[in-house]
Design a protein that fits this description.
The complex is a heterodimer. By secondary structure, chain A is mainly beta. Helices cover about 0% and strands about 45% of the residues of chain A. Chain A contains no helices and nine strands. In chain B, strands 2-10-9-4-5-6 form a six-stranded mixed beta sheet, with no helix packed on it. The termini of chain B are far apart. Classes of the chains: A mainly beta, B mainly beta.
Chain lengths: ~110, ~120
């Protein structure tokens, strides 16, 4: 159950689009369309942003979108805003009925 | 509204035990899988365990298997995590979260467990 690989940091200017990658293996991301993404603001609990690769929960801005190709999932934030500055984690269902999280990405709005 | 409140964290010596609780409200507790997820200070998230609504399905991460036991009391709308043989690397904030369908949608605010001599 090794952690999924995410870039440590991604940055962008307000209004720009950024993409965070999440690379796993054929035992997790590659085998299941069950990738979710979480936003964690400093000192707060994580918040669900995307589930089942590309679905958005009610109340989450449509500026957030998800996709997957092979063993890599991606989260794109379009029209970047200051309030998007946070840590983001991917998560995938995996073989042996386990869950594995990504290493986390710090998003900075320049 | 859905609310999850963890409690029971604290300072414990290596090799010691601790029992965490998660009190749930705002939804039909017995209908849902619930999970424990932890986060070491300044580190990423790590899935720990989950349990089905009627406790018939239970799974653990390899890192805690054999030391931690998840359980629930649907009459009390409560989830538990019994942690034995604690190690320094178990130091973390422990969150409970609902697991409706392969994702974690509602999270508590967490309870801090510190394992240190």
């Amino acid at each position: 159950q090794s952690a999924l690989t995410q870039p440590a940091s991604v940055s962008g200017s307000p209004g720009q689009s950024i993409t965070i990658s999440c690379t796993g293996t054929s035992s997790d991301v590659g085998s299941y369309n069950l990738v979710s993404w979480y936003q964690q603001l400093p000192g707060e609990a994580p918040k669900l942003m995307i589930y089942e690769v590309s679905k958005r929960p009610s109340g989450v801005s449509n500026r957030f979108s998800g996709s997957k190709s092979g063993n890599t999932a991606s989260l794109t934030i379009s029209g970047l805003q200051a309030e998007d500055e946070a840590d983001y984690y991917c998560c995938s269902y995996a073989d042996s009925r386990a869950y594995v999280f990504g290493t986390g990405t710090k998003v900075t709005v320049l | 509204q859905v609310q999850l409140v963890e409690s029971g964290g604290g300072l414990v010596k290596p090799g010691g035990s601790l029992r965490l609780s998660c009190a749930a409200s705002g939804f039909t507790f017995s209908d849902y899988y619930i999970s424990w997820i932890r986060q070491a200070p300044g580190k990423g998230l790590e899935w720990v365990s989950y349990i089905s609504g009627r406790s018939s399905v239970i799974y653990y991460a390899d890192s805690v298997k054999g030391r931690f036991t998840i359980s629930r009391d649907n009459a009390k709308n409560s989830l538990y995590l019994q942690m034995n043989s604690l190690r320094a690397e178990d130091t973390a904030i422990y969150y409970c979260a609902t697991l409706p369908d392969y994702y974690f949608d509602y999270w508590g605010q967490g309870t801090l467990v510190t394992v240190s001599s």
